[in-house]
Design brief:
Blueprint lengths: L5 H16 L6 H8 L3 H8 L2 H18 L6 H15 L5 H9 L4 H26 L4 H21 L2 H18 L7
Helix pairs in contact: 1-2, 1-4, 4-7, 5-8, 5-9, 6-7, 7-8, 8-9
Length: 183
């Protein structure tokens, strides 16, 4: 595997710090220490702290979507459970960024909205694949289960994704016309 670029190293270090401590609470001195670079190097490769936050969210979103297995609804929750096990459970970093940046950074707010729209589209695509037809109401319900599992994982761990996945499976089965408890 080729060596990681310095920019990528900085972005990943910042992601860990932002995820643990929040965006506003993480100062540039902390980001420099976490990345193991000088402040000059950090600014040269990523620009401002807000630009770094944007790069963190872009990279995290791509990693998340790349890690979702298969093309079924169940894969969403399997992927979420694996993400929680690997990354930890501190709630959705995108929603936390929105909360911290909503009043002052339109680019970050727009990125969060694009990420959430992409997630909604992914859920709808998988629902349509499982049912053989679109079902906007079911897709919205499953999206809410997914978002709820992300939040509940803070205190339930990966079991939140498992429980939400079971609920999603039941909803899909009902939408197919088969009660999930029937043999």
């Amino acid at each position: 595997m080729p060596p990681m670029s310095l920019r990528r190293q900085i972005v990943l270090a910042a992601e860990r710090a932002f995820d643990r401590e929040g965006f506003a609470a993480t100062g540039m001195d902390r980001l420099v220490r976490e990345a193991g670079v000088s402040s000059r190097t950090l600014y040269k490769h990523v620009g401002s702290k807000d630009a770094l936050a944007l790069a963190v969210l872009e990279g995290r979103g791509e990693r998340f979507f790349a890690g979702l297995p298969g093309d079924r609804v169940a894969g969403l929750f399997d992927g979420l459970g694996r993400w929680i096990e690997a990354e930890g459970a501190r709630g959705c970093l995108f929603l936390r960024a929105h909360g911290e940046y909503a009043a002052r950074d339109a680019a970050i707010v727009a990125l969060v909205r694009r990420h959430k729209a992409r997630l909604a589209d992914e859920v709808a695509r998988r629902v349509a694949g499982d049912l053989g037809r679109s079902d906007a109401d079911l897709a919205r319900q499953i999206l809410i289960l997914f978002e709820g599992a992300t939040a509940a994982a803070v205190h339930l761990g990966p079991g939140a994704a498992t429980a939400a996945g079971a609920a999603a499976d039941a909803l899909v089965a009902l939408a197919r016309g088969k009660a999930p408890w029937a043999p």
